[in-house]
Design brief:
- By secondary structure, this protein is of the alpha/beta class.
- It has helices at 5-10, 25-32, 50-62, 76-84, 98-108, 130-140, 150-154, 156-160, 172-178, 188-204, 217-225, 236-253, and strands at residues 15-20, 38-42, 66-70, 89-92, 142-147, 167-170, 208-212, 230-235.
- The chain has a single domain (5-253), classed as Phosphoenolpyruvate-binding domains (TIM Barrel), CATH 3.20.20.
- The protein has an eight-stranded parallel beta barrel, surrounded by seven helices.
- Helix 2 (25-32) links the parallel strand 1 and strand 2.
- Helix 2 packs parallel to helix 3 (50-62) and helix 4 (76-84) packs parallel to helix 5 (98-108).
Length: 254
């Protein structure tokens, strides 16, 4: 029987995912067929609507890949809607404290573990499968917090201590930006912040993640060798753009 993403996370197995920012089902289908373990629909930095997100979730799930959603903010209303649409979990931006982490977890879980309201939508088979979904949600739903601000780095010990947080993913651009150095990934202060997070993750045996923005296999392997187990590899527009540029440049040179 195929192991679920939650089981792989609990076993600290390496999983590979990517980011979707274009709201077309063909994009999701192409990427789902590429062999990723999970795909995240980005509703923070894209024009994807909830209706489009549900269509993408359906395509990803029916392709045998785990659908996640990066919500626009740590908002219970947004989180319950994407979960009701069928997302298997959420990636929550700007989690900078233990309170933020608890809010994210409670937004995904039903009482008594959280405060999510009950809806009868796609996830619950439109009312025909609520009891099964309730059990599934308790055991299989996924909460990944984004560490993308220096405040989160400074509070990392308490964030990783929150029950129900399945892991974290470092957002390098926003983290470096919060330090006044956007995109300066070789800066000593940025590298020290990342090291602080990595060391805390080791102490807590936390699932550690990183978003490798460029479609660079060498950089991805560096993160994998550094011990990151939940790695997002680039995003749809970067794959498309870089492939086009590389091939056109090669053609122009020939």
């Amino acid at each position: 029987m195929k192991m679920s993403l939650k089981e792989k996370i609990n076993n600290r197995q390496f999983t590979l995912g990517s980011w979707i920012t274009l709201g077309h089902s063909s994009i999701a289908e192409i990427m789902a067929q590429a062999g990723f373990d999970w795909l995240t629909i980005d509703m923070e930095h894209s024009a994807i609507t909830l209706s489009e997100a549900q269509n993408l979730i359906q395509v990803i799930e029916l392709s045998g890949v785990t659908p996640l959603v990066r919500v626009g903010e740590n908002n219970p209303y947004l989180i319950k809607r994407v979960m009701d649409a069928g997302a298997h979990g959420v990636i929550v931006p700007m989690v900078n404290s233990a309170d933020d982490a608890q809010k994210a977890v409670k937004s995904v879980k039903y009482p008594p573990y959280g405060f999510r309201g009950v809806g009868l939508a796609r996830a619950q088979k439109y009312g025909a499968g609520f009891e099964d979904y309730k059990k599934w949600c308790e055991k299989e739903s996924i909460v990944i917090v984004q560490i993308e601000h220096i405040d989160a780095v400074n509070n990392i010990e308490s964030i990783l201590s929150v029950e129900g947080v399945d892991g974290f993913i470092i957002g390098p651009y926003d983290l470096s930006g919060s330090m006044g150095k956007p995109g300066e990934f070789t800066d000593a202060a940025f590298l020290a912040a990342v090291t602080k997070v990595k060391n805390a993750a080791a102490r807590h045996n936390s699932l550690s993640g990183y978003h490798v923005i460029a479609p660079d296999v060498g950089e991805l392997n560096e993160k994998k060798n550094d011990g990151y187990k939940f790695v997002a590899f680039s995003l749809d527009t970067m794959f498309l753009g870089q492939t086009c540029r590389n091939l056109v440049t090669e053609i122009r040179r020939s």
